[in-house]
Specification:
Structural class of chain B: alpha+beta
Order of helices and strands of chain B: EEHEEHEHHEEEEEEEEH
Helix content of chain A: 10-25%
Shape of chain A: elongated
Mean pLDDT of chain B: 94
Distance between the termini of chain A: 30 Å
Oligomer: heterodimer
Low-confidence stretches of chain B: none
Order of helices and strands of chain A: EEHEEEEEEEEEEEEHEEEEEEEHEH
Radius of gyration of chain B: 19 Å
CATH class of the largest domain in chain B: Mainly Beta
Strand content of chain B: 25-35%
Number of strands of chain B: 13
Number of helices of chain A: 4
CATH superfamily of the largest domain in chain B: Cyclophilin-like
CATH architecture of the largest domain in chain B: Beta Barrel
Helix content of chain B: 10-25%
Structural class of chain A: alpha+beta
Low-confidence stretches of chain A: none
Largest sheet of chain B: 7 strands, mixed
CATH topology of the largest domain in chain B: Cyclophilin
Radius of gyration of chain A: 20 Å
Strand order of the largest sheet of chain B: 5-13-6-7-10-9-12
Number of strands of chain A: 22
Largest sheet of chain A: 7 strands, antiparallel
Strand order of the largest sheet of chain A: 2-3-10-5-8-13-12
Chain lengths: 328, 225
Amino acid sequence: MSITILKPGMMSSLQDLGRWGFQQFGVPIGGAMDKVSATLANIICGNDENEAVIEMTLHGASFMFNESACCAIVGGGCKAFVGDDELPFNRLLWIPAFSTIRTTASAQGCRSYLAVSGGFKVKKILGSASTYTPSGIGGMDGRNLATGDMLSFKREQDFQATSTLKMLPSGIGISHWHTANLVSEMSTVLIVHAIMGPEFDLFNSSSQENIFNSEFSISSQSNRMGYRLEGKKFALEQKTEMVSTAVTTGIVQVTHEGDPIILMADAQTIGGYPRIARICAADIPLLAQTRPGIKIKFKEIKQEESEDRCKELSRSLKKLKSGIGMPS
Amino acid sequence: MIIPRIYNIHDQAITIEFSQEISEGTNLLVIAMQHAIESNPIKGFVEAVPAYGSLTVYFNEHVSAATVRTWLSDLSVQVSNTSLATEGKQISIPVCYDPSLGVDLPWVAEHLNLSMEAIIALHTSIEYRVYMIGFIPGFPYMGTLPTALEVPRKQTPSMKIPAGSVAIAGKQTGIYPAEVPGGWQVIGRTPLRMFDPSTTPCSFLNAGDIVQFKPITLEAFNQYQ
């Protein structure tokens, strides 16, 4: 079984939950930008949570299903169709052989994840299927997906999975149940919970005040490595050259020009810029669903609250898992 | 003894910082700490990432941040009290300093008011410590460069620095493992592969290794290919 990429869109790549254990050699964790949506897509399909999924950016991509198969799409940024039938997100879908899934832009979100039941057959590099293009490793030969790429499935479809689906006249099946949608909860100004960063005290007083009290807009110069923020400029009280130390997803570092950058999934392992704040790990998926131009504001929280928010997220994911397949 | 600073950089990553300086003594402590952690990890430990003067520990939901903090603090006391022998490998790295590969060598020579031969002699005269691997997979940050070789980074970074390029900046020297944009001054190139995901470990060099550069001719360099 397989699917063929007809159009890769602006950027589509294979990702899993990241490449762990090699940061001491400079290899970033990477993986899905929105790991909650990627996890959900796999859970819906009955896969292992760490199975490789296709991460699509903004308006999405189009695929041909070469055989009938079950899949799920979770996230945002696009709407998906087969013919005239719109495919709902967050549900298990049965796609008949030779159907083409095409997508159009939607108003909300930035990244959508396609998982197939059984999972894609992807060679793991350093323990992960995640594509990391700067080093050309993982996914499809270390690069983003391109027209004509064919992705085989790891195992054959379990046909029984379709028995609980509502069948449309076109032959498409849709599960009665669905999981919660992260993206629908987004507001006009996204509130992101953040904690003071390791070098917060080194910034001048206006910077310390502005980081939690001003609005930023996500710059178009944002990618899987980081989101550049437009808004107030930031500066240290005294100019100091930092000695490089570890950085990771969620760190808000300030460049010499004074612009904050939030490090995202492909963040390098070591960095030398002062870190004014860091994002609560539970808010990273939401941030991954924001697109350039979106306004965000940091709400200061303490470490304990940040840990509580992370625990809450993992609890709700566990609850979702146990509820999959139940009627809504 | 150094009182380290311990702080979160992520809800599941904690840094123990011994110093904000580039010193061999501190880096020895960092590496000793890494080895102590890896040889007897706490439940929930994922990985440890050494930097110049700090070590960052990643963990999962099987352990709390508070437990990791206490563990790191206790361990740092134990490690500080033991002798810190260098455990890194001694590695000789062949480098061709021909200006066709070390494209910034003429600029560096002019800037430092030295001959190209003098620069090569200086660069190969001492052993360097690999303080950490970072920037991109397999990139070693090495030091400390002889004072006479200190040059600033490029005003405008080069768009493409070829893989294997041996470069200098400030007190540091490094090797670009892949073709990337970069701001260091390129003075030579090694035919060795610095990063290969199909080998174990994937990085040719490791934090704590001791490196000495060995000059080779353009002919010898080409024979490596």
